[in-house]
Write a structure and sequence with these properties.
SH3 type barrels; five-stranded antiparallel sheet
Length: 68
């Protein structure tokens, strides 16, 4: 089973994004996603932003992870 983590995009440059995942900032590849802007939420897996998600989806995922 693969696990993706929700993260908020802080900055984007040269196909890479700085994201904030529960207070931890890291650099991930953003090359798979078009029209990504700071403030957007993404699902991150293996260092790659794989999908844009809504704020509600981010909140739901955070709650599930906290309950694990």
């Amino acid at each position: 089973m693969c696990v993706g983590l929700p993260a908020k995009v802080v900055n984007i440059r040269d196909g890479m994004a700085i994201v904030d995942a529960s207070g931890a900032r890291r650099e991930v590849s953003a090359e798979l996603l078009d029209d990504l802007d700071p403030g957007d939420y993404v699902m991150v897996h293996a260092g790659i932003a794989i999908a844009k998600i809504t704020n509600d989806e981010q909140d739901e995922t955070e709650n599930i992870i906290e309950n694990l």
